[in-house]
Automatic annotation (TrEMBL):
<keyword id="KW-0131">Cell cycle</keyword>
<feature type="compositionally biased region" description="Basic and acidic residues">
    <location>
        <begin position="132"/>
        <end position="142"/>
    </location>
</feature>
<dbReference type="GO" id="GO:0051302">
    <property type="term" value="P:regulation of cell division"/>
</dbReference>
<feature type="domain" description="Septum formation inhibitor MinC C-terminal">
    <location>
        <begin position="157"/>
        <end position="252"/>
    </location>
</feature>
<dbReference type="InterPro" id="IPR036145">
    <property type="entry name" value="MinC_C_sf"/>
</dbReference>
<dbReference type="Pfam" id="PF05209">
    <property type="entry name" value="MinC_N"/>
</dbReference>
<dbReference type="InterPro" id="IPR005526">
    <property type="entry name" value="Septum_form_inhib_MinC_C"/>
</dbReference>
<dbReference type="GO" id="GO:1901891">
    <property type="term" value="P:regulation of cell septum assembly"/>
</dbReference>
<feature type="region of interest" description="Disordered">
    <location>
        <begin position="114"/>
        <end position="152"/>
    </location>
</feature>
<keyword id="KW-0132">Cell division</keyword>
<keyword id="KW-0717">Septation</keyword>
<comment type="similarity">
    <text>Belongs to the MinC family.</text>
</comment>
<feature type="domain" description="Septum formation inhibitor MinC N-terminal">
    <location>
        <begin position="11"/>
        <end position="81"/>
    </location>
</feature>
<feature type="compositionally biased region" description="Low complexity">
    <location>
        <begin position="143"/>
        <end position="152"/>
    </location>
</feature>
<dbReference type="InterPro" id="IPR013033">
    <property type="entry name" value="MinC"/>
</dbReference>
<comment type="function">
    <text>Cell division inhibitor that blocks the formation of polar Z ring septums. Rapidly oscillates between the poles of the cell to destabilize FtsZ filaments that have formed before they mature into polar Z rings. Prevents FtsZ polymerization.</text>
</comment>
<dbReference type="GO" id="GO:0000902">
    <property type="term" value="P:cell morphogenesis"/>
</dbReference>
Amino acid sequence: MPPTNKTPPLIEFKGTTLPIVTVSLRSLQLGELGEAASALFGDDPFFDGEAAVLDLSQAAAASSAKWQFLKELFRTHGLNVIGVRGGSDELRESARTAGLPTYAAVDRSLRAAPRADDELPAPAAPPPVPEAKPEPAPEEKPAPAASAGARSPTLFLTRPLRSGQQIYARGGDLVVLAAVNSGAEVIADGNIHIYAPLHGRALAGASGDTEARIFSTRFDAQLVSVAGLYRTFDSGVPSDLAGKAVQVRLAEKTGDSSGKLVVEPLRTE
């Protein structure tokens, strides 16, 4: 019989999806970027060695940059810059010469990326695997469904949420006391209170509660959603909302209208 053992190939190609942080830069000045990074992440490494791509589409017009210094700047905060996307041809060529290839500007967070002003049904949030529950005895009647106003204990998040991570407060509110980084996602069946920078995605009223709201003391979100209506900020958050305290809610329905998602400054006086 011929031998059945085969020598495994030395090289194999397999498709995979890796978490990559996209860092949008509005300036290429090292001094300004250093101050901004320190204000966001402090002086210690914030990330755990994640790969990062620099988005240059919103950076000031420039033909080159000090790429090695930029890479070192983000490395001090735990990010490994592997390439760039967007920006002028000259800027991308400058990056390529410095060993940073160009990646296509594709947002993989949405299947069909709508514009910032679009308000469409939100993609279904993948909930955690439910815990197994024992079957009721045959003579027992099924318990009535919980009312919309029923709430589970509030879930508190006290650590930063990094890209690719997700927290889901099933049946209740979520209070976040640390930064929600770009690419991270917080979900709650009730309200979401974020007393820290919101750079990722926040989805309140995930089970359909139209009275749910999102509160953020420092707003710079990628996506917000309440009860199935969502809004993205692919081109950046408007200046009247960026970095400010805001609330996100649904306006009251009128007639056959399905409502409107409102993102507005939060009045504290």
